[in-house]
């Protein structure tokens, strides 16, 4: 990380780290004092508290880097997603409404009503860029459910502070990916948040800031061994049935971020197994999707299908570019599917998912020609003041608190204090560097090969 970039990234890292510790403390406090008596009240409060942390990342997209997100959708999808919260007055009124509902309704109503135009949803998307998870959070914030975004993640992710130091940070050789016949049969998933990227190891939930906040928010952490994870995943999904407010649970069913090398591997696998050869997406792995649908079909009414594309002559967005304040443009097509329209059988659900990615592939071909999604309406999602107000408030609080602490402790008047401060800055700098590197596609975990027996008894490799 360049020195000039560090001058920008370190202050942002300090803001996120210390505000995150405050959020973690509040989450721990309400977990111990409120959750034993009312899980519903805990979830409502935690939703608002977690949002105070996630809004800082939305602020980076909206205000610091000024990323332009073009939403393409249809009127029905937009209506079911709810009115986009782009006006500060509306946001404030909704916040007051949340508090009143929390005080007046949670205890006495066994069946809390979802906000008008909002609903639980399972989100699927192609994994086109390094910040797709952040773009998902932007849409979740506009739809009023940023604090209740969820994801299924590798279990080591729960050890993340700002980012996990247990990540395998070595760069994978692209040639190794070309030699692979298929991606991993075990899906890794998004959320809207996840890592800060969606691929983490089991460790994340035990570390402060991101990992702890995700754990308190009921993210699902898996070991990526289906024999161990199947019951964990099913139990975690069923536990969401009584979630009192709208949530989005997102899956990157491709299992890894898109790169040219991974596309070549997917094309080779598809060609050798008589499957449609992808051009713009990877072959979806459906096991996690099928399990999610089977467990949540009764209480999640919708699937939100996002197709992410980059306009021509646009520099792909990365976390480093965001921290440097460098803008990008991203096009996202959003389509809502009713859960009740999905097939009843697991095989049918798996094929439905594969068919949607074939359609997505065709849609991305059209985007290459038109540099837009011509069959959908362009919607202005605005740039709400909410995230800006939250970040400014955090900054004022932390600057004032730091000033008072230094005034009281005389920390900077001794070599011991200066050393302590330098070590703290180094930790934050390293954490931000890890976050940036692991958000990059070349650092995503490459797929594994899942051997299966074919009808003639030979062993081949399979993508699920």
From TrEMBL:
Catalytic activity: a 1-acyl-sn-glycero-3-phosphate + an acyl-CoA = a 1,2-diacyl-sn-glycero-3-phosphate + CoA
CDD domains the record matches: LPLAT_LCLAT1-like
GO MF assignments: 1-acylglycerol-3-phosphate O-acyltransferase activity
Gene Ontology CC, one term: endomembrane system
Pathways involved: Lipid metabolism; Phospholipid metabolism; CDP-diacylglycerol biosynthesis; CDP-diacylglycerol from sn-glycerol 3-phosphate: step 2/3
Membrane-spanning ranges: 6-33, 88-108, 388-406, 418-438
Protein name: 1-acylglycerol-3-phosphate O-acyltransferase
